[in-house]
Amino acid sequence: MTLEDRAMRLAPYVLSIVRIVVALLFFEHGLSKMFGFPSPRMPDAFTLSWFSGALEFVGGALLAAGLFTRPAAFIVSGEMAFAYFLGHAPRGFFPQLNGGDAAILYCFIFFYFVFAGAGPWSLDEWLKTRRGGSERAGRLERQAGTRRA
Q1: Residues 6+ apart with CB under 8 A from 139
Q2: Which bin fits 46, alpha (ψ -120 to 50), beta or left (φ > 0)?
Q3: What share of the chain is helix, strand, coil (3-state, %, to 5)?
Q4: Residue 51's pLDDT is what?
């Protein structure tokens, strides 16, 4: 088995790991804005910052669990684009200088999850499997079969 074969075989699991880690980091931002932990600064209720915290808290939890991954990722990707253009871009052109590099990364990583899905270690995949089989498993088997031929 070549390195490329191993990488192809492990790619769905790495997708799950990346999703979980990124979602937990994002969840921390929402936790901080909603409940003051670990940062003691909390925005006033029903302000724009409070609503972004609610999206980050709920969206981060859903993405970490891999539940409703595609719609949740689409919503928080849009939130991060909105956050960048509203909060960071007016401070200057370069993301490193305007503090928006994290918002850009979150935006595009979440946008990738909209298309890639949650990966095999997710509630989405578990629910799909319980309903009569995984489309992803069948698709991966077909891809593996066509590559060997």
Answers
A1: none
A2: left
A3: 80, 0, 20
A4: 96
- pLDDT tens column, 55-80: 999 999 999 999 999 999 999 999 99
| Residue 130 Cα distances to 21, 85, 126, angstroms | 25, 41, 6
The sign of the dihedral angle between the CA atoms of 13, 5, 114, 18 is positive
Q: What is the CA radius of gyration of the chain?
A: 18
CB 134 within 8 A of CB 126: no
Locate tokens 């909060």: which residue?
A: 87
Interatomic CA distance for residues 15 and 33, integer angstroms: 27
Q: How far apart are CA 67 and CA 112, in angstroms?
A: 16
Whole-model pTM: value is 0.85
CA atoms 115, 77, 35, 18: torsion sign = positive
Average pLDDT on 105-109 reads: 98
